[in-house]
Specification:
The protein is of the alpha+beta class. It has 2 helices and 6 strands.
Length: 84
C-alpha cells in the first residue's frame, strides 16, 4: 500500500542567525517579523507561509520560504545534515 518516495534536491536561501550578525539579519527580513529576547538572548520572530509565528534562536538558520516575506527557522544541526 505505501510506496517509497525520495525528496527532490532543493536550493534554499538562508543565513545563520548569530550574535555577530543579528542586527543585519533582522534588518534584511521583509514581511512581518519582530525582535525580542528569550532568557536574555536575542531572538527573531518570523511569519511562516502558514501564517504562524516561528522563533529563530541564536545559531538557527533563517530560511526564505517560497512565499515572499515568509521564513522558517532550522536548527543548526538539522540544517547542516540536510543542506550543503
Amino acid at each position: 500500500m505505501f510506496e517509497r518516495f525520495r525528496s527532490l534536491p532543493t536550493t534554499v536561501r538562508a543565513v545563520q542567525f548569530t550574535e555577530e550578525n543579528k542586527d543585519r539579519v533582522f534588518n534584511s527580513l521583509t514581511g512581518q517579523h519582530a525582535a525580542d529576547f528569550e532568557d536574555g538572548k536575542p531572538i527573531v520572530q518570523v511569519t511562516t507561509a502558514h501564517g504562524e509565528v516561528a522563533i529563530v534562536r541564536l545559531g538557527d538558520w533563517v530560511v526564505c520560504d517560497a512565499s515572499p516575506g515568509t521564513y522558517y527557522p532550522v536548527r543548526d544541526d538539522v540544517f547542516r545534515a540536510k543542506y550543503a
